[in-house]
Amino acid sequence: MHAMMLVNLPVADVERSRQFFADLGYAFDDRFSGEKSVTLALGENQFAMLVERELFDSFHPLETADATKVKECVVCLTVDSRDAVDALVNRALAAGGTEGDAEDHGSMYGRSYNDLDGHSWQIFWMDDNSPG
């Protein structure tokens, strides 16, 4: 149905955010990046645009949520294994992120972290071979 997904998230400091996600092993797409934004490549045609708060505020007349105080969304991303969940979340914590929740349902395992601006990222693995 959709050819591309771009999630826009406000950030206080674009370069600080770029370094944080680079430390986690992410790449960036310069086609959609500029002085006041950086685009994080999440997968094929899946992106998170990290936009300087002032520019983000100009997109819509409503007040921008402060993700350190209220939850505006949760970005959920799958990985290939339980170990990959732990590795990515542990890198986020080492880079300055904060621990979120964790769930283990056997065939589904996930942990989350909050980035430097408080945005919640849930990283999870599902066993595709599990019955049901």
UniProtKB/TrEMBL annotation:
UniProt KW keywords: Dioxygenase, Oxidoreductase
Gene3D superfamilies per the UniProt record, alphabetical: 2,3-Dihydroxybiphenyl 1,2-Dioxygenase, domain 1
GO molecular function: dioxygenase activity
Boundaries of every VOC domain copy: 3-126
InterPro entries documented for this protein: Glyas_Bleomycin-R_OHBP_Dase (IPR029068), Glyoxy/Ble-like_N (IPR053863), VOC_core (IPR037523)
Entry annotated with the keyword DNA damage: no
Listed name of the protein: Extradiol dioxygenase
Organism encoding this protein: Mycolicibacterium aichiense
